[in-house]
Task: structure prediction
Amino acid sequence: MRNKIMLAIWIGALALPLAACDEANDGVSAVQTFGPAPVLPAPQHSWIPTVNVATATGWPGGGKPVAAKGMAVNAFATGLDHPRTVYVLPNGDVLVAETNAPPKPDDTSGIKGWVTKMVMRRAGAGVPSANRITLLRDTDGGGVAKTSSVFLEGLNSPFGMVLVGDDFYVANSDAIMKFPYHTGDTKITAPGVKLADLPAGTINHHWTKDLTASPDGTKLYATVGSNSNVGENGIEAETDRAAVLEVDRATGKCSPPAFAIRTGRVGSRKAGHCGSPSTSATSLAIIWCLIT
Result:
């Protein structure tokens, strides 16, 4: 009986942050919180942190964003399974990565993991990954996809995509894969070839990896998020994390990060590079980098 009571207390306490998701923000509207003289709400103090999670809600039937004057908005395609990224091929075909997080057993264990999964479900992210890329084709230029087909499947939480010549690259959660592509192809059936591993593992806290190519096409750049929020998973888990990795297309060799997110207690951390550990990180400040 005692154990059941304690369990009920724990569940009640852990549910409070979720219950606080819809708390009022001291009457301050979003418009008031930015500009030259922002009005910021007073800080809140509590034993349990407030977690504000936006509930994922689709557009109602016929609903759509309000376009600027002289512009029009319409749905290009519907019925996609958790679409995350879009890539337009040179011939105008639109590729959509339908994806979600891979299994992360060490990131969802214990009481904290249980709460995390509850929050993810509330945000609409608690669904299995479709692990595919869908091709949308607008055959008449009317702004609506007339055909939809599976372009590539059997992937591992894909996110980034880039075409270089006849090589189509996909950044899975754990590796960059290369596939053959010819203009007009609606489906790739050839098996992929792994170009390079990407940091992943059983935690894989920020799992999405975006991808782009250098102007001359000789290098690929893969973004890798940190494996924690404040370094709480230990230093080894941050190897090659919080960085943009440079990968040679010809050899698959991964060079030290082209760019790194600067972190640390009072300064910057030394970025790890393709096999060497990085130093501790307890705070985060993002440096935005534009690859041209």
Summary: The CA atoms of residues 13 and 47 lie 10 Å apart. DSSP finds two helices and 14 strands in the chain.
